[in-house]
Amino acid sequence: MKIYAIVGAGGFGREVAPLVTQMTEISSHENFEILFVDDHFQDKAINGYTVVDTESFMKMDGDKFFNITIANSKTRQTIAERFIELGAKPFSISASNAINLSHNIIGEGAVFCPFTTVTSNATIGKFFHANLYSYIAHDCVIGDYVTFAPNVQCNGSVVIENHAYIGTGAMIRQGTPDRPIVIGEGAVVGMGSVVTKSVAPYTTVFGNPAKPLRSS
Q1: 23 located within any domain
Q2: 101 and 172 inside one domain
Q3: Is 93:111 a contact under the CB 8 Å cutoff?
Q4: Fewer C-beta within 10 Å: the chain N or C terminus?
């Protein structure tokens, strides 16, 4: 028996669960179960999937796999490290119409929602989230625990460091191999922003062109 856990029964988890069902039905000839793991959710089932807490999941018999559908990247990292330590293995989730074109390196635990694209020669770290209609173009380097909201346009030769968050509809200008656009660790790019130059770590930018938000 293989057990596939979606950690987090919130909105994103409920969006992703059907993708896991499609993947396992297509690729698996063995018995499997798909469930939610959520230590704070009170219902025993949601959208037809059983909900259990972490302790119950870890006590189940079978090969245990997990992915994390929680937006907060630091929380994702904490959960990932804990589950791996307890013996569960990460698995990646990809919609049937997500496109992975050529010579890309993608870390464990990624989520690629419908209509997402990675073109060529990109490197993507662990537990990356790519929401609906987002894309990553050639020669980009994406760190661990990075989040793309829907419809992010990440053009070529861009570096996005660990724990960065790119908001819905944001566009990142193409860099060059010798001068990539760099989005620093923990930076936040606001919804609809157009990033034309590098963003410092732990900085929030917004607008067209994107500029750092200033305290009033």
Answers
A1: yes
A2: yes
A3: yes
A4: C
Q: What range defines the domain where residue 81 resides?
A: 2-91
The residues that are catalytic are 138
Residue with tokens 């057990």: 3
Answer yes or no: are the C-beta atoms of 203 and 185 closer than 8 Å: no
Q: How far apart are CA 11 and CA 94, in angstroms?
A: 17
| Backbone angles phi and psi of 132, in degrees to 5 | -45, 130
Q: Map tokens 């635990």 to a residue.
A: 109
pLDDT tens figures, 15-26:
999 999 998 765
In angstroms, what is the C-alpha Rg of the chain? 18
Q: 39-90 pLDDT, tens per residue? A: 998 889 999 999 999 999 999 999 999 999 999 999 999 999 999 999 999 9
Phi/psi-derived region of residue 87, left when phi > 0, alpha when psi is between -120 and 50, beta in every other case: left
Q: If we measure between CA atoms, which residue out of 197, 16, 29, 200 comes closest to residue 208?
A: 197
Q: What is the DSSP letter of 204?
A: E
Q: The tokens of 180 are what?
A: 């990539």
